[in-house]
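Researcher: Quick sanity check before group meeting.
Model: Go ahead. Protein one:
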Amino acid sequence: MTPAVQDDHFHDECGVFGVFNHPEAANLTYLGLYALQHRGQESAGIVVTDGQSFNSHRDMGLVADVFKKSDIERLSGDRSIGHVRYSTSGGSELRNCQPFSYEYAYGGVAVCHNGNIVNAPDLRHQLEAQGSIFQSTSDTEVLIHLAAKISGASTEVRFGEAASRLHGGFSILVLTETRLIGLRDPHGIRPLILGKLGDAWFLSSETCAFDLIGAEYVRDIEPGEMVVIDKNGPHSLRPFNVARPRFCVFEYVYFARPDSTLEGVNVYRARYQIGVELAKEARVDADIVVPVPDSGVPPAMGYAEGAGIPYQMGIIRNHYVGRTFIEPQESIRHFGVKLKLNANKDLIRGKRVVLVDDSIVRGTTSQKIVEMVRKAGAKEVHMRVSSPPTKYSCFYGIDTPNADELMANKMSIEEMCEAIGADSLAFVSFDGMYRAVGKPRERHCDACFSGDYPVPVKGSRSPQLSMLRFFNRNS
């Protein structure tokens, strides 16, 4: 058995979900994580408290595989937090599954987070020098150790002071016996949403999780805000210095589910409008517009409308590819891509085709898809991409290659076009992307396209990919 086919996209970071004051907290958290599964497929976990004790269940795998009915029934309590993970900081192993739970001087506490704390290695070494012992290699655990060293203060003050020492992009959930706390980094790079159902309150990475459980969207947690939910409901604190909001624009391009609304912007509508803008900027004479499924579907529909060219599902995706598969003994060219995607020859044969995808990372998959479409009989193949060229690594919780592995970092667009074998290649402009989103560029992080990092980072390699090696090298 070999690892499941790896596509050539940036991989989603993590998803968090929290419940306060609902008798079925564990079950609702399970459903919330199910809705957020696209944000992380390596592990899942839930921690629940009834105000007296904490119970947890964590394991490697998808939500539906990790939790059985008996596991949910065992997790009794009316408040909980849950997490789905794609490893960015630390390795892909059970000890790094979140949420983490602890007993310390002030009682029980559990924590999980989405994002990346870029100064975690420095903080960890300082804490270890002071006697802290870590159970994982995840940057999330640093927050607990920082909070535990702050004495004589309320839970809000302890975690607010601890979080103020963190640098990076993050949304954090903290669960105690009496409180559910949500923290968002000063720039608001990663999303966090507040919801309500009856007398119960919820925190989630995306609104699609509220839709599944029937909760009402209340508002987005603001950049730099700490929201504390207790028996009196939510109230807000501001533990961070004020900073300019820089929400991750790639949430709109690829990461978030199309049916979510983030920062007041519907993700599907933004992707569709990016396609419309792309057609204005880079229309080509063609017979059909074909998305690279699934993320290419909304922008391809927008491109088809904007260009006045028929939209067709010329590539079909197999949605039932598991985490592992058995390779054939005889070599099959481009086996991995064919396992997941297949060209619909009857639609493509003899046509001038516009392929629409959300991004080009290393370019390997794009090259294989272009070749597959040509072999299906396409007369011409034109690639259109619904984001600007991806030239830089992400340091804020997205699994990305080194910059020197990114095709756009080392090639011109003309060279990229030749390398993937297309007749033409065009990317949406920054102006086109932000017109589609409907918000100004200065309020977003687009560092993976521009290299403009809102939080300073050290070194040429993304910390979330190298942290485990960092610890081993310096131990």
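Researcher: Fine. The other one?
Model: Protein two, sequence then structure:
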Amino acid sequence: MDDTIVAISTKLGKGAISIIRLSGEKSIEIVNKLFKGKDLTKVKSHTIHYGFINDGKNDIDEVLVTIMLAPKTFTRENVVEINCHGGIAPTLKIFELLTENGARIANPGEFTKRAFLNGRIDLTQAEAVMDIISSKTENARKMALSLVEGNLKKYINTFRDKLKYLLANIEVNIDYPEYYDIEEITKEQLKETIKNLEQDLKELIKKSEERQIIKNGIKTIIIGKPNVGKSSILNTFLKEEKAIVTDIAGTTRDIVEGKIIFDGIELSLIDTAGIRKTDDVVEKIGVNKSISLIDEADLIIVVLNSNEELNESDKYILNKVKNKNPIIVLNKNDLQLKINKKDLKFKHIVSTNTNSLEGITPLKNEIKEMFKLQELQEEDYTYLSNNRQLILAKKALASLKDAKMSLLNEEPIDIIEIDLKEVFDILGTITGESYSDELLDELFASFCVGK
């Protein structure tokens, strides 16, 4: 990290301004070569300066340059940000001049990577930076901001501090084996502390898994035989005519998608082709696609005509989803009911119609209840936010259970220590106390170049 990096931090295109960012020891020196205005090597930190970028012969653009001196910067290195006009030509010309004068083009996420490597943030905070950028709902923003502020880092460190205390006590036992009473006291402490730590870690994992929908949303498919009102339900949810609705069976032959923010969560709705036996080649492809989506969905909405008895297509669909916990929608409830609810062996059954926006309120309420969306409106957003963190937390929990089992089996105390050290190290991997170069390369590869 001895070199100075540069990247365009705003979207390249027509706009009011572009921001070009540099980080590294020579950031100020490189920009000063091109800046016509104050001597930037002599200005105070965290100040903004007006002038022009000049290639030695001609002015390129009128700019504002922000100077931030280490260590009080995002990367804990000297950082310079150039605000120029937002056109493609001036932005690229300034960027080109900076690279010609000694700056290296940054890799994806390299600014955030440097912030991590220089100790400004931990890995959970680094991951949360990208979560803020990609957040689509208010709940997702709050969750990401909680992680950026270091709340998960503090929670994990508190957990590790308790383990550190246990490990210190075990070391005393190993160093002074002749004191039997010390070992007995330590084992009693271990029983109580491991029990509490296991409970806390289980609760964190459980809540984090439930709240993955804050970040990822709910992928929802609407399935049923042709002409039961699937497309009408999609359109009513979206409040627009996204899907074509006719009385002709088989109108929808491919999937139709739409997204809404529903009670603070992104709901990705997919209207599928009606499932039935057909000789139409195109429709058959759509039917097979509909069936394949069943295993990919977080939520399956099965739509039935309430005014028709169940036929073979209905029974085929219900059999396909019998182990998936779907919501069964008896649509067109303004007509005579001809389906016996007792024949439907499912937990979630609602009646709807699409004659008005209020007609699908029972379905909306069932989704809220099913995913406990009301519980997501809370103040504490300290959760594991991605699969990497969840997998590591589960590994730590498994090692903690091994330690508890060793204790119950009256294994030697140094055997218990091995499992507890493993828990301590795994939790450290979540925050980045220990890491591999491969992990960092993979993690930051998905970042924006200018971040």
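Researcher: One line on it for the slide.
Model: The two ends are 16 Å apart (CA to CA).
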